[in-house]
Specification:
- Helix content is 85%, strand content 0%.
- The chain has 59 residues and is mostly helical.
- The chain has two helices and no strands.
- Helix 1 runs antiparallel to helix 2.
- The termini are close together.
Amino acid sequence: MEKILQVLSIFIAFFVIVDGIYVYVMPPYGDEPVAAAIILIGIFIPILTFSVARWERVS
């Protein structure tokens, strides 16, 4: 997989995680489960990208 895609996935994941933290901190309160889901998606993006890159390198 192209290195640029891996770097872009890290930047996108960082943006999504920061967005999740923003949702968690800002009112209206009660959106904590949504914020946690957004943060988990941000963590999942680079894991998925690097897993696919490793899988393509092996095959």
